[in-house]
C-alpha cells in the first residue's frame, strides 16, 4: 500500500477549510494535521516555524485567511492586508524551510481588476485597477500568488517544490457567514428571506436593480477542485500554466442575475411574499464571471447545481444559526 501523505489544512474550521477536510476524509485520507487559531497563530513566524519543523507535512492547503464583506473590508483595511500577508508569508516560507514539496494557496476572484473583461481569464491579473473597497485584501492575495511563483522559480528545480494557487468565484455553502452586516450575497439573502418568512413580512427588499450578473460555486465543489489541483501530476499542471502565471480559476461556469438569484432563494426558503428592488442602492460591477477553461482542460468541472447547493446551504443555516429558531 502507498503511504498516505501527511496533510496540513490551515484554516480547517473555515467554510473552505472544513469543506477540504470533508473531501479529504471522503477520499480515505486520515493523516491530516490541524491547529485552531488558539493553538497556532499563523501571523506569528516563530510559532509557524516551530510547527512546520515539528510536523513536517508533505502537503499544505493554505485556506486560512481573514475575510469579510464590503463593510468589514472598508472598516478594517489595515487588519485585512496585514493578517493575510503575514499568514501567507509565514506559511509559505516556513513550509519551504521544513521541506514541504506541495502547497496550495486558496485566493479570491477579487485579485482581478474591477473592469476586467468578462469572463475573467487568469491573464487579467495585474492589468488594471482593483475594486477600491477590497483592495488591501486583494493585494495580499496577489502577493500570495507571487510568493508561490517566486519560490517555484528559485527553488523548484533545486528543491523539488511545487506551490500552486487556485482562485475561486463567489463561494457559498455549509459554514458560511450569516452576519447581518458582514455577510456576502447568498448568506445575506438566505437570512433575509428566512426572517421575512418567520415574521410574515409582505416583501423583501434587494439592493439595486437586480440586473447585475454573478457566478456562485458550492463550497464542496471548491474543495474537490482544490484536492484535484493539488494532486495533478506536475508535468500536466505545467502544460496549462506558466512560471509567471501559475494560478488557476475555479468557477461554476455560468452566472445569473441578482433578480434570478433572489427568486431561487425565495423558492428554497419557502417565502411567499414579494421581492422588491431598492434602486437607491448601488448595483456594483455589472458582471463578474470567471473563465475556468484551464481547469476544465485539466479534468475538473463543478458538480453541484445552484438550486441544490442553496438547499444544502439553507439547511445548514437553519441547523446552525441561532436566529433561525428565534
UniProtKB/TrEMBL annotation:
What EC number(s) does the entry state? 1.1.1.271
Which keywords are on file for this protein?
Isomerase, Multifunctional enzyme, NADP, Oxidoreductase
Which residues does the annotation say bind substrate?
A: 192, 207, 214, 283
Please state the gene responsible for encoding this protein: fcl
Catalytic site: 137 (proton donor/acceptor)
According to its UniProt entry, the function of this protein is described as: Catalyzes the two-step NADP-dependent conversion of GDP-4-dehydro-6-deoxy-D-mannose to GDP-fucose, involving an epimerase and a reductase reaction.
Molecular function (GO) terms for this protein are: GDP-L-fucose synthase activity; isomerase activity; NADP+ binding
Q: Which organism is it from?
A: Ralstonia chuxiongensis
Q: Which InterPro entries did the record assign?
A: Epimerase_deHydtase (IPR001509), GDP_fucose/colitose_synth (IPR028614), NAD(P)-bd_dom_sf (IPR036291)
Pathway linked to the protein: Nucleotide-sugar biosynthesis; GDP-L-fucose biosynthesis via de novo pathway; GDP-L-fucose from GDP-alpha-D-mannose: step 2/2
According to UniProt, the reaction catalysed is:
GDP-beta-L-fucose + NADP(+) = GDP-4-dehydro-alpha-D-rhamnose + NADPH + H(+)
Superkingdom in the source lineage: Bacteria
Q: Which family does it belong to?
A: Belongs to the NAD(P)-dependent epimerase/dehydratase family. Fucose synthase subfamily.
Q: Which CDD domains match?
A: GDP_FS_SDR_e
Tell me which PANTHER family the record gives: GDP-L-FUCOSE SYNTHASE
Extract one GO BP annotation from the record. Answer: 'de novo' GDP-L-fucose biosynthetic process
Q: Which residues form the NAD-dependent epimerase/dehydratase domain?
A: 7-233
**List of residues binding NADP(+):** 11-17, 106-109, 141, 168-171, 184
Protein name, UniProt field: GDP-L-fucose synthase
**At what residues does the UniProt record annotate the site feature described as Important for catalytic activity?**
108, 110
Amino acid at each position: 500500500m502507498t503511504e498516505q501523505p501527511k496533510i496540513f489544512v490551515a484554516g480547517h474550521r473555515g467554510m473552505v477549510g472544513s469543506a477540504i477536510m470533508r473531501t479529504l476524509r471522503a477520499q480515505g485520507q486520515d493523516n491530516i494535521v490541524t491547529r485552531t487559531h488558539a493553538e497556532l497563530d499563523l501571523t506569528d513566524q516563530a510559532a509557524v516555524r516551530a510547527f512546520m519543523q515539528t510536523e513536517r507535512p508533505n502537503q499544505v492547503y493554505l485556506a486560512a485567511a481573514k475575510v469579510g464583506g464590503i463593510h468589514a473590508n472598508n472598516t478594517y483595511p489595515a487588519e485585512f492586508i496585514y493578517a493575510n500577508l503575514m499568514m501567507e508569508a509565514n506559511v509559505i516560507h516556513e513550509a519551504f524551510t521544513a521541506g514541504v514539496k506541495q502547497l496550495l494557496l486558496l485566493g479570491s476572484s477579487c485579485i482581478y481588476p474591477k473592469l476586467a473583461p468578462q469572463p475573467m481569464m487568469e491573464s487579467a491579473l495585474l492589468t488594471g485597477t482593483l475594486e477600491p473597497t477590497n483592495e488591501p485584501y486583494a493585494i495580499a492575495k496577489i502577493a500570495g500568488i507571487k510568493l508561490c511563483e517566486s519560490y517555484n522559480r528559485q527553488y523548484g528545480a533545486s528543491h523539488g517544490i511545487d506551490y500552486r494557487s487556485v482562485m475561486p468565484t463567489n463561494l457559498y455553502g455549509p459554514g458560511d457567514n450569516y452576519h447581518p452586516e458582514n455577510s456576502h450575497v447568498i448568506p445575506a439573502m438566505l437570512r433575509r428571506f428566512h426572517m421575512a418568512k418567520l415574521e410574515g413580512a409582505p416583501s423583501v427588499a434587494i439592493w439595486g436593480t437586480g440586473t447585475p450578473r454573478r457566478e456562485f460555486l458550492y463550497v464542496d465543489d471548491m474543495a474537490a477542485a482544490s484536492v484535484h489541483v493539488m494532486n495533478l501530476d506536475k508535468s500536466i499542471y505545467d502544460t496549462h500554466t506558466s512560471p509567471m502565471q501559475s494560478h488557476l480559476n475555479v468557477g461554476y461556469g455560468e452566472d445569473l442575475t441578482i433578480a434570478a438569484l433572489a427568486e431561487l432563494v425565495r423558492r428554497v426558503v419557502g417565502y411567499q411574499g414579494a421581492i422588491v428592488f431598492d434602486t437607491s442602492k448601488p448595483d456594483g460591477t455589472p458582471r463578474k464571471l470567471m473563465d475556468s477553461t484551464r481547469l476544465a482542460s485539466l479534468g475538473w468541472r463543478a458538480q453541484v447545481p445552484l438550486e441544490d447547493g442553496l438547499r444544502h446551504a439553507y439547511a445548514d443555516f437553519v441547523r446552525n444559526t441561532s436566529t433561525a429558531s428565534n
